[in-house]
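Purpose: get a first structural picture of the assembly so the mutagenesis plan has something to point at.
Setup: two entries, given in the order below. No constraints added.
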Amino acid sequence: MLAVANETERASKEQLRTAFDHATTGLTLVDDSGRYVRVNRAFADLLDYGTEELVGRSFREITADTDHDADVAVANDLISRSRRAALREKRYAERAR
Amino acid sequence: MPVPVSNSLIQPTAGCPWQLLNTVESLAERRAAEARLLEVHSAVDGIFSLDERSRVIAWTLGAERLLGYPAADMLGQNLDRLVPPRCRDAHNADVSRVAAGGKAHLVDSTVEVPVIHADGRDLITELSLSQWSQNGKPHYICASRGTRHPA
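Result (structure tokens, whole complex):
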């Protein structure tokens, strides 16, 4: 019985992971230290990176200087629950060549 | 270039630290669609589309070049202004019949039809008509391959 439950959970996680990875919208998960835990292909393609190059990096490294403060302000608003979600336009840093 | 981003806070499992879930819209698809639209808009053929009542809902530069009417004059107008007066009653009857659910005989075919150029000349144009549907109503795309004087 436990094995069946584990298998169902594993399949469910796999399904979610596949959906995340293959979504045509860019998706990222950032941890509480500001580092990318997971990014999908659509997001990496947008900035001309490989997904593996972005995981573990701080959001600051790929955010345009002009937008750092706005990012932090949004995160603080969300943490303090003064708003449930934020929708805005953001500029990313050009990839250094 | 700024991109639309939405942020929300999630907690993967109870008691775990929060994570920020971000969705970032790629503008690549939109840019590609705009490029395709520009290609159509700049095509040599005159391309225009009509709603179910024969009103113009799109009019390309090619259509302007071939027929002389700028988009600003055509959008929202009934196409019958391009139809010579001698054919207008038949044209409008056909539009009404199709709007009432009748079959559009010219769809998926290429025909030569008389047309009035913006400068008043009575010309013949080769027109291909195809049909698509929006909100359950038929719409038409017309491609004009050039004009000539009647024989």
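Chain A has a mean pLDDT of 90.
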